[in-house]
Amino acid sequence: MKLDFIPLGGGREIGANSYLLKWGKYQIILDCGLNPMKSGYEKIPLLQYIDPNKPIDMIFISHSHNDHLGSLPVIVDTLEVNEIITVEGNRDVMNIMLQDSAKILTKYDQKGRGFYLNYFEEDKIFTIINGGLIKETPFLEWRNLNEEIKYMLFPNGHVIGSSGIILKDIDGNTVVYTGDYALNGARIPEDFYFPKDIYPDILITESTYGDSKGLKIEERKQAELKLVNLINETLKNNGKVLLPAFALGKSQELLVLLLINYDKFVTHPYIRLVGMGKKLIKLIDKNTYYKYIPYINVEKFMRCIDWKPAYDKIPENSIIIATSGMMIPFTPSYLFLEKLLEEKNNLIAFTGYLAKGSFGYELLHTQKDEEISYYITVKHYKDSYEEHARKTLRKKAKVVQFRLSSHSPLEEVLDFIEKVNPKNVVIVHAPEDSAYNTRTFLKNRLFQGIIHTPANGERLTLSDRGILYSSMKRINYIITTGTSLLSNFKNKFPEEEVTKSKLLAYMLDEKPSELCAEINTLIEAVREQKKLSNPLLEFHLLNSDTEDGIFAGELLAEYIKLKFAIPQKRIHTKTIKGLSYSYDVFQKEGIYNFINSVAQLLEEGNKKSIIISTGGFKAETAFTTLLGLLYGRKVYYIHQKFGGVIEIPAIPIEFGTDDLKKNYELLMEIVNESNFEKAKKMKESNLPKSMYSFIYKDKILKRYVLSPIGRVVIRFYRYKSSIVDIGHPVSISSKSKNTIWGREVKSIYDVPDVKVVRILNRIVKYAGKNLEKIVFDKFKKKDRGREVYFEFQSNWGNKAIRYKIKLPYGTQEVVFFTAPHYGEKFVEDIGIKIYP
């Protein structure tokens, strides 16, 4: 069965983790999270890659952290979902997490408030939880998704209600999705267990700590002991302790840790739980706790749960476990800060992951006695709307981080991958550096499988040989199809019945000039039939959502297959939902879906992809031309009476995004704002008039939405912001067999270490056309560096300059070949030592 994998979120990031499997005729989603670092519509995964014309056959929820569960209400509300699968016991956890997340998001994230009010209504969440969509499944039992695919859940040791997922089709292709997992160290969830008889073709694994941080089990025990001792020392000095913690997993783990070590706290402190973690505690059988703390009495245990917090009055001798773990503004852990941070005896200890850009990360890296911005609530309104004012706090308390993570460290991830020995590894749920670092370490261990670190929206396809390959290598011919085939035939044979077989025979017999405009354009644009035989070339026919449009699209696909001897699997037809004769549907739905479909194919294909924009509605030609210019792809157009093709070239004009970059957040805030009058004031007072065309007022929703042109530009802006700019192309080759990245590195795109990519990118830009090629030479494992940098070694004449790349796992020699007599200037321009 044909299998495509597309990260909708979580590709080279820890964000709105969600992964789409297009498996035969089925659509399967693995998790659907929200990005904790963004607001409103920006928080959701890239749902535009899901085919709206088909149902989502199954959504698997690996666990209920918000970055894996949070966008479920959006997906259920906007798309057709047949079933949601999760492990037994997780439905109640999902309910608590979704209900509380909705309240917190609506109350505290004003930029995205309109979005939350639209999708996170209480009755909508109630329907998801209790409406029959969710099916709870026990561990380690095969169940049928349908007649062609079966699945099994396995315990992955992350948090309560978490699981990994195994999927297998009738052809024997096996996909394993680990979810977030911990091979060792967790106390509350089921221990990690992976079935011995599973041999993955594709392993989709997280690598949160692929930057090589994270603790082994022995190190974790030492870290726990250090934390307990530091808490004890703080309490003895009359200090108070705040432990910011994720509601699910970390809160329960910390409670057990503190109760196990309770007799070490000489002050007999009160342990107090605040936030969603308190609700989740009640879902766990108390015997689970008593297994670790048999001597603790029920009264002391319940005292942890029943305390009602007063953020301005913190009792003495207190250890507070409060959500959120990254101290997101206005969550309980954040609200305690004002009364804790400015007293030196207090302790704030983070024990989980801190994303760069989060308030917790900023606080941890603020120097002692320096000030940090803090926001307080100054106004309350009846509709729960709040305004916030900025103040500063001086960091005097001790702020530390202990890595007591519920994620496996890098060594354990690498060991697990090697143990199950998949043909293909896909690394997700990892910051860019961590993803590339994991890939590099795997290669360093001489792992023989194919390794991918896909970006969001990058399609990986399983080949007939069982190898995953990236869509970035494909050449996409995007053809907008009209219905001139039918009208031409009817004009010529007015008495004839129109059937597919008659039309096909007519097309195959006639000259190209007497067929339809789409075929004429294709033939004229390609000119040489041998180009069409390229196995990386794929045809994508986009037809309207009309009976004639669908008929014509299928007919053109069959013609291309027979006329040019193209295999069926390289020809794809797609009906663009809403691209019809209804003005309202066309304007609000059809153009949006059309733009997404064309842009997706442009983003997936390489630079040789083209657009044949002859058929279909005239608006399609306008938008494909704009997309071609933005993405730097050629657009071809022909009229039936023209003798030749009009080529709109990939004009080398840089699309200016400066205004958009400056005003992007404001634009999204206007779109997210449900109060139209307030949004209008924001638009008229701050948004440049040149950007007014990006939005318009929707009469039904009664708020601003993105216009078709706004969708084009915004989508392109997001795409451009995510790609690596490598300047002019420079070839890379390998001189030595023991090069760290093998001989497959042919360009900067292929280098798996993102820090090395950054340095090479800068070198290419500085040197310009004076740099002719790059050659990787020997790799030495013993000569390691603590950080990544390039260091000058020697000149060979004045044309070849040798540097060494220092890496945590060894040293790679690299030679830059330059234009004659540029060698010395190259070293002056680039520097003796270069850091990312």
Structure description:
This protein has 836 residues and is of the alpha/beta class. Helices cover 33% and strands 22% of the residues. The protein contains 25 helices and 36 strands. It has an 8-stranded mixed beta sheet with strand order 6-5-4-3-2-1-21-22. A 7-stranded mixed beta sheet has the order 7-8-9-10-11-19-20, with helices on one face. A 6-stranded mixed beta sheet has the order 25-24-23-26-27-28, sandwiched between helices. Helix 16 packs across helix 18, helix 19 packs parallel to helix 20 and helix 19 (583-604) packs parallel to helix 23. The model is unreliable at 380-385 (pLDDT under 50).
Q: Report the C-alpha radius of gyration, rounded.
A: 29 Å
Residue windows where pLDDT falls under 50 for at least 5 positions: 380-385
Count the helices. How many? Answer: 25
| Counted beta strands | 36
Which structural category do the helix and sheet elements fall into? Answer: alpha/beta
**Beta-strand residue fraction:** 15-25%
Integer average pLDDT: 84
Distance between the termini: 43 Å
Tell me, briefly, the overall form: globular
- Major β-sheet annotation: 8 strands, mixed
* Helix percentage: 25-40%
Spatial order of the strands forming the largest sheet: 6-5-4-3-2-1-21-22
Concise synopsis of the structure shown:
Helices cover about 35% and strands about 20% of the residues. It is an alpha/beta fold and about 850 residues long.
Name a few traits of the molecule:
single chain; 836 residues; alpha/beta; eight-stranded mixed sheet; seven-stranded mixed sheet; 25 helices; globular
